[in-house]
Amino acid sequence: MKPLFSRACSAQLRWVPLSSAVVVTLLVTLIVGLILPFIACGRHDDRIVVGSKDFTEQLILGELFAQIIEQRTHLPVERRFYLAGTFICQQALLAGRIDIYPEYTGTALTAVLKQEPSGDKKNVFQRVQLAYASQFRVEVGPPLGFNDTFAIVIRGDDARKLHLTNVTQASAFTPKWRAGFGYEFMERPDGYKGLVASYNLKFAEAPRIMSLGLVTRALKEHQVDLIAGNNTDGLIPALDLVALDDDHHYFPPYEAVAMMRDEMVKKHPEARAALEGLAGAISDDDMRRLNYAVDGQHRDAAEVVREFLRDRKLIE
């Protein structure tokens, strides 16, 4: 039994005389079809790819980087946000899948470089800058102006009722409390293990491990009693939560910076120059307000960023 399409195929194989005009048209179509992918590839290489981790502040910082590059250089920017945590972003940067992403100096020092923490901001920045250049061929941009250190957070009611202002005071009550931490915090050298050792913390049960974006809500809804959040989380004051003082100075400084592939910087120095416009431009309070606008007021991150950049006259 012959295939059903044999007749159609036979018809296609018949010789049909073609005019010179048709031949030229077919040749042009073939040539264009062969060349276009290479042209597109060239344009593809000229774009800047900005990545970010998977929580609100990183989304905002990624959008800040993208918009200021677009406005000041007119280079096309591709956004690859929500790339899980530090290690995924780091590998994506080294593999050339992204060109830039926002990072924190304390995270880079301890989680990536595996070096001992320090409380000196300048020292931490210089160590990270030198190590990233020599080990990874990655340029570390100037600090953006705010320090997003980890914050040990409890409910405002508990802080007032028990008169708690620092982590040492809270340690007397944690044996009856449930804790909630992000996945990465549980594994980092500057995270859970060091924290409980420094303050001799004990909890009523094993910590609940969840996405960093969920821990604040879990605390407010009494699913847990203590969390490790971010100092610049806009929901902390909005939800009547209290960040306890790290009186042992356990956490190193976490200044926000841009991590940039050397290859991209050499090819597009104008992108680095655009990002330098953000140096020192964002305070702790600024970052809290930006985070709250997205998390608390549910506004679009791109709109919030555009408004901020225009208000500061960083873009037109």
Brief descriptors of the model:
316 residues, D-Maltodextrin-Binding Protein, domain 2, disordered N terminus, alpha/beta, globular, five-stranded mixed beta sheet, 16 helices, three-stranded antiparallel beta sheet
How would the blueprint of this fold be written?
Blueprint: H1 6-13, H2 20-45, E1 48-51, H3 56-73, E2 77-80, H4 86-94, E3 100-104, H5 105-112, H6 121-136, E4 138-140, E5 150-155, H7 156-162, H8 167-170, E6 179-182, H9 183-187, H10 192-199, E7 208-210, H11 212-220, E8 226-230, H12 235-238, E9 241-244, E10 256-261, H13 262-267, H14 269-275, H15 284-295, H16 301-311
Parallel strand pairs: 1-2, 6-7, 6-8
Antiparallel strand pairs: 3-10, 4-10, 5-8, 5-9
Helix pairs in contact: 3-14, 3-16, 5-6
In short:
By secondary structure, the protein is an alpha/beta fold.
Descriptive account of the structure:
It is a single chain. The chain is of the alpha/beta class and 316 residues long. It folds into two domains: 47-147 and 253-311, Periplasmic binding protein-like II (D-Maltodextrin-Binding Protein, domain 2, 3-Layer(aba) Sandwich), CATH 3.40.190; 150-244, D-Maltodextrin-Binding Protein, domain 2. It has helices at 6-13, 20-45, 56-73, 86-94, 105-112, 121-136, 156-162, 167-170, 183-187, 192-199, 212-220, 235-238, 262-267, 269-275, 284-295, 301-311, and strands spanning 48-51, 77-80, 100-104, 138-140, 150-155, 179-182, 208-210, 226-230, 241-244, 256-261. A five-stranded mixed β-sheet has the order 7-6-8-5-9. The chain has a three-stranded antiparallel β-sheet with strand order 3-10-4. A two-stranded parallel ribbon has the order 1-2. Helix 3 (56-73) crosses helix 16 (301-311). It is globular and about 55 Å long. Mean pLDDT is 87; it is low at 1-44.
